Amino acid sequence: MNLSEFIFKLETLKAQLDIPLLIRAYQFSEKAHSGQMRKSGDPFLYHGLETGVILAEQNLDSATLAASLIHDVVEDTIVTLDQIKAEFGQEIAELVDGVTKIGELQFKSAEEGQVEYFRKLLVSMARDIRVILIKLADRLHNMRTLQHLAPEKIHRIAQETLDIYAPLAHRLGMGKIKEELEELSFRYLEPQTYQELEQKIKASKTERESLIKEVADVLKKELEKAGVKAEITGRAKHLYSTYQKIKRQNVPLEKIYDLMAIRILVENDKDCYQTLSVIHNLWEPIPERFRNYIDQPKNNLYQALHTTVIVPGRQWVEIQIRTQQMHQAAEYGIAAHWLYKEGKKQPDPLDKRLAWIKELLEMQKELKNPAEFLEYLKLDLFQEDIYVFTPKGDLRQLPLGSTPLDFAFAVHTDIGYHCRGAKVNGKMVPLTTTLKNGDKVEILTSSHQIPHQDWLKIVKTSRAKTRIKQWLKQKETQKTAVTGKKNGKR
């Protein structure tokens, strides 16, 4: 890709950008990277252009795109940050500086190194979320051209992408980038499994596409009758998510019934529910697979209605219903903040989409042991979630594998401390029970109940483990103090 192709791409995206600024950034990068080539044989500055296009597709602003074009110059050339500041100003210089500082850290096997890497990412995100957006785009283009590297480097980068960057994209709500990062990582980490799965799915592609078209045609007619304006599309589920489902359910591909999904985009919330009603009147729904993410958004603020129905031939079809605004948020996540808002900088610091960053930084300070913090990240940040209900019908979000005791600590620390038992769906269950999506959980408490060491073997969330350890440590400190006083009196 050259400059003219880059500008043409921006024009086709109808992005409202400062083109003269981007041309200046390109020329600056071209001069700085003169003579430098990538492993692919392409000029080095092409990488900046590709990174910029990815960000333009995510609706980012001109400053972010300009920074992406020159994001490697400080790290890989003799250009200094002061020169960038003099040429492009403070804002763009700070973005480049943030990306450079992340780039200086390598993902290490040592726990301390991993924790420091995450800490740098979190601090950068807290200062300006656009830094991590540039880094995500940078990583995505690197993954697209990964085949040019040595095998051991390919494996390391692909694993790092799956462990760090794809989950971060997910938490930022950037569905398109997250899915492509996962697909590319899967292809490189398990090439044989990837190819086998791809071939099996292709074998039944025509049949599945025909089914989806039939269902979509029926839906279109019925929604028109109901007076609902809708945009209906069918899509194949991504290979990595299908692979994860096969592993999680321990079943062959033939037992995975929802390899394709129908997406319906409507104008407002009311139309979402009316569409759902039309669907359930047409086909038999599977109740346990219904999700209302409009009333209870995911932790990345994803919103939609999900339902799975049984169509003629006993086939399962998953249908997602969302508004256009919800769709923008699902596709672009935090980047949707800049859509049609050229010139805006950070989202509101109180934006709920960024609250988890502050929470992680606080937890990192609290958890001095690097291993504990990494466990917290893997369980509470990057783990798949389940959704369970309180007795009053409120929805609670927990990591997959959580127990009633995890639920108790999620509700309130004191409820966790005094938990003596639990009911799930109205029946008494052991505290070791693994909760499932849709469970209704009631915690029984007693003022006489206190935490004990065995609880650490029951809970899965680091939040619960941390609170239990704090309580046990406090009691041990008190016990030692009392023992010391008694010995002093003798």
Protein model, in words:
It is a single chain. By secondary structure, the chain is of the alpha+beta class. The protein contains 22 helices and 11 strands. The protein has 3 domains: 3-189, Hypothetical protein af1432; 196-330, Beta Polymerase, domain 2 (2-Layer Sandwich), CATH 3.30.460; 383-489, Ubiquitin-like (UB roll) (Roll). 57% of the residues lie in helices and 12% in strands. Strands 1, 2, 3, 4, 5 and 6 form a 6-stranded mixed sheet that branches. It has a 3-stranded antiparallel sheet with strand order 10-9-11. The chain has a two-stranded antiparallel sheet with strand order 7-8.
CATH architecture designation of the largest domain: Orthogonal Bundle
How far apart, in Å, are the first and last alpha carbons? 84 Å
Total beta-strand segments: 11
- Count of DSSP-assigned helices: 22
What is Rg?
26 Å
Helix % is: 55-70%
Q: What would CATH call the class of the largest domain?
A: Mainly Alpha
Looking at the structure, what is the overall shape? globular
Global structural class: alpha+beta
User: Which stretches of 5+ consecutive residues score pLDDT under 50?
Assistant: 339-344, 346-350
Mean pLDDT reading: 85
Q: Might you state the CATH topology name of the largest domain?
A: Hypothetical protein af1432
CATH superfamily of the largest domain: Hypothetical protein af1432
Number of domains: 3
Biggest sheet statistics: 6 strands, mixed
Proportion of residues in extended strands: 5-15%
